[in-house]
Structures are given as structure tokens and as C-alpha cells.
Design a protein that fits this description.
About 30% of the residues lie in helices and about 20% in strands. Helix 1 packs parallel to helix 7, helix 2 packs across helix 3 and helix 5 packs across helix 6. Strand 1, helix 1 and strand 2 form a beta-alpha-beta unit. The chain is built from 7 helices and 12 strands. By secondary structure, it is an alpha/beta fold. The protein folds into 2 domains: about 120 residues, NAD(P)-binding Rossmann-like Domain (Rossmann fold, 3-Layer(aba) Sandwich); about 110 residues, Rossmann fold, CATH 3.40.50. InterPro entries: Precorrin-6x_reduct (IPR003723).
């Protein structure tokens, strides 16, 4: 029997999960909302490191792992690579191509939080789209700045921080309205790739606003790598229906 473990938490993963029948497993780390419209089994929580994942693959008779986690979930991707090698289970991965700067873009690259802080020092109204990372620094905001932080879940802000809980996709009109309301003068972003959250870059470009882009982590190899969910879903359907 073929049984797939889909490592998810992204829109790409959800698109693949919606095509999986009941015997397969969609695994989420536990952040965000759990989809309720799936036929496959939904598993929430960690595996207990590489050894725990190896045990899960063997105990659950998994015959294929599909890594469709976020491009910045590097630890999970590394654990999947190592566990699949130890359990002798093939590994596929969905790796969205990174965004590339276009004419008119003003991108500055940062490799960690310290470099992000240095890059935004000259600005006053940054928009953070890093997920929850900026929430850990709400008490470190300089008096000269007011932060707008967009993340999936509601969180209290403070006198110098506004929290926007929103889930993409985001369109140009909505991003323009946010930039206007919050008076954004710099954007801090992960280079996630894909179209769902790309509109903020287009608005920054048209307004001449700088973008501080967090460097993508290096990810391990896989037996097959797909650029998008549709290609992975089609290949998976073929794999599941093979003689």
C-alpha cells in the first residue's frame, strides 16, 4: 500500500492536501488554523526530531514524503531529508523560486535579525512580514519608529507597534491601502516566492520604498523537486495511480 506524508503549512501544501484521499497524512507544525475540508488525515505537532520522524515513517508505513513546508522552515526540511535517508523512503519537495529584484526595486539583504535592525535604522514606519519573529522584539522598538507587523494570528501591540492579523493572498488594492494607512516607508520580508504575498513588493516598487529581504536558508536536496504545487500534485496523482 502506498501512503504519503505531506509536510505542510503553506498554501502550496494545502493545494496538494486537497487532492489526497483518506489514507494519506497532512502534517502541520501547529501554527495557524487547521483546515477542515480535507479527506486525508490531518496531523498537528512535531515528530520529536529526526529519530522521531524515522519512527513515524516506519510505524505508519509511509512510502513517500512530500516536503511542502515554507522555504524558511529549513530545520524541518533538513530533518525530512535525514529521516527519509535513514528510513529508505523517497523524498519529494516543493521549492518555490525566490523572488528576483526588478527594475525600480531598492532591495537590501539581511541574513539575521541584527542586520535587519541595522537596515531599518534610517526609517520610521517599517512593515514587517516575517511572521511572528518581530513580535519577540516589541519592547526593543526605537522611539523614532512605529512598527506595523503582519502575521497570521492576533497579538496585542503597544504604543509603538500595530499588529495586523491577516492571511494571504494579498492584492494590490489592499496593500496600497495598508501602506497608506500605516505610512509605510520600508518593508521587511522573507523571500518566500510565489504570488500570494508578492503584491507588497509591487507597491514598494511603484512608490520607491526600500525592501529589506531576509536571505533564504540553504535547503537539502530531494529525489524530485517541483517549482509549484500544481506540478507536484500532478506527479503525485500519477504516482498514486500507477499499476
Amino acid at each position: 500500500m502506498t501512503r504519503v506524508l505531506l509536510l505542510g503549512g503553506t498554501g502550496d501544501a494545502l493545494a496538494i492536501a486537497r487532492a489526497l484521499p483518506t489514507t494519506h497524512v497532512y502534517s502541520l507544525a501547529g501554527l495557524g488554523r487547521v483546515p477542515g475540508d480535507l479527506a486525508c488525515t490531518v496531523r498537528v505537532g512535531g515528530f520529536g526530531g529526526i529519530d522521531g520522524l524515522v519512527r513515524y515513517l516506519r510505524d505508519e508505513h509511509i512510502t513517500l514524503v512530500v516536503d511542502a513546508t515554507h522555504p524558511y522552515a529549513a530545520q524541518m526540511s533538513r530533518h525530512a531529508f535525514d529521516a527519509c535517508a535513514l528510513a529508505d523512503v523517497p523524498l519529494w519537495a516543493v521549492r518555490r523560486p525566490a523572488w528576483q529584484p526588478q527594475a525600480g526595486d531598492d532591495w537590501r539583504e539581511a541574513s539575521d535579525w541584527r542586520e535587519i535592525v541595522e537596515c531599518i535604522a534610517p526609517f520610521h514606519r517599517p512593515l514587517f512580514t516575517l511572521g511572528r519573529e518581530a513580535l519577540a522584539h516589541l519592547h526593543d522598538i526605537p522611539a523614532s519608529q512605529h512598527w506595523t507587523i503582519r502575521c497570521l494570528d492576533a497579538h496585542p501591540g503597544n504604543a509603538r507597534a500595530s499588529i495586523v492579523d491577516a492571511r494571504g493572498p494579498f492584492d494590490l488594492a489592499g496593500e496600497r491601502a495598508l501602506f497608506d494607512a500605516a505610512r509605510i516607508d520600508v518593508v521587511v520580508s522573507k523571500n518566500s516566492g510565489g504570488r500570494a504575498t508578492e503584491a507588497k513588493l509591487a507597491v514598494a516598487r511603484e512608490r520607491g520604498i526600500a525592501v529589506v529581504m531576509l536571505t533564504r536558508p540553504a535547503l537539502p536536496d530531494a529525489d524530485r523537486i517541483f517549482d509549484d504545487a500544481a506540478s507536484a500534485r500532478d506527479a503525485l496523482q500519477h504516482w498514486l495511480t500507477r499499476p
